Amino acid sequence: MSSASVYVANRRPLSHTIRRSLLYFLTAILLVIVLFPVFHLVELSLKPARDAFVMPPNLIFAPVWDNYALVMTPKFLQPLGNSAVVSVATTVISLILGVPAAYALSRGHFRRDQALSLWTLSTRMAPPVAFGIPFFLIYKQLDWIDTLHGLVIVYLTFNLSLVIWMMRTFFDGIPTALEEAAYIDGASIIGTFWRVTLPLCAPGLATTAIFCFLMSWNDFFFSLILTRSEAVTGPVAIANFMNYETWEWGKISAAGTMIMLPVVLFSLAVRKYLITGLTAGAVKG
User: Fold this and answer.
1) 273 and which of 65, 140, 151, 206 could share a cystine (Cβ 3.0–4.6 Å)?
2) CA–CA distance, 238 with 76 (Å, rounded to integer)
3) Does domain 69-280 have CATH number 1.10.3720.10?
4) Which residues contact residue 205 at a Cβ distance below 8 angstroms, ignoring those fewer than 6 apart?
5) Is 256 helix (H, G, I), strand (E, B) or coil?
6) What are the structural domain ranges in the chain?
């Protein structure tokens, strides 16, 4: 072996280590940038009001729980419960209605299937503000203003298209040979869908469910327009801590942390399926 070959062989691990270290360094910087608002929100919720915006900021302090105690009242807990009920109901109903529709579009052969898919996607193209006044006028006639089922129906209008488009991609990635084998063994269409196809789409179901839950949980616009007091959700309740006299930053931060926490815990619980679903959903078999 020549000296040049030995030199290249020795240099290759060093260059690989440098590239890997640089990648870790850039990833760490990106994580700091992305997670800094979350850290600042939690930090602000644990500080006394007098220390919230002191300069320079106090990074080392004794945490206090006064802000959480102040928001743990029916004025905020009821809207938080409304958010949970509406988000869970919307997610479940969206999956029940959207998953079979996505399977039909994936496996069926319609004359206008592409046009139908495009029409489904077009329901998400207009901004929500374009539907605010029509929904308000319709709900006023139906006496659905300030009702939980009214919010569920509104959220279904934009979650269904999300479920159909995401799940169709996952169904397209499952080979039809697996279903044909189940048919040969005597399984029905529903039995094959329930016992073969759906379990294989578990990562896709988890990913879709998380996105549906997030879309409903974080909604502010429709809840602000279509609710008054009884059906107010968490994001709108946070706005009540802002008034003309002062903005109660401690309460706002504590309420924001409480709204963020269930989503974080849910995402951590299904992180395995979430990562698999986000990577597998973009690949067709």
Assistant:
1) 206
2) 8
3) yes
4) 95, 99, 167, 198, 273, 277
5) helix
6) 3-45, 69-280
